[in-house]
Design brief:
Blueprint: E1 6-16, E2 19-27, E3 39-47, E4 50-56, E5 64-67, E6 70-73, H1 79-95
Antiparallel strand pairs: 1-2, 2-3, 3-4, 4-5, 5-6
């Protein structure tokens, strides 16, 4: 029986003022050229119906970051660094209000 992806993290944070952050990270059964770190992830910050910041590695796109309408590559180092980078961006956005 083939191995299945294993859920490592799934958390939703209510940040007040209508903002939420959601983190979902899976450990994949196999590393691939596109996901050499062996993780599939989706990190979201925004309000209902509005993504302000997102980090993900959707198939065909590799590791990348969204900030409002802009999309740019993201250099993955570790899961710990991914979370630190994401929440640093969230803090900056909340502090700018």
């Amino acid at each position: 029986m083939p191995k299945r992806a294993r859920l490592l993290r799934r958390r939703k944070f209510d940040l007040g003022r209508g903002y939420i952050a959601q983190v979902t990270i899976w450990e994949l059964p196999l590393r691939t050229e596109e996901r050499p770190h062996g993780l599939k992830y989706s990190l979201f910050f925004g309000r209902y119906g509005e993504r302000i910041i997102g980090y993900d590695n959707e198939a065909g796109k590799g590791d990348h970051r969204h900030y409002r309408e802009r999309e740019e590559p993201y250099r993955f180092h570790s899961m710990k660094q991914l979370l630190a980078d994401f929440f640093a961006d969230v803090r900056k956005e909340l502090d700018s209000e």
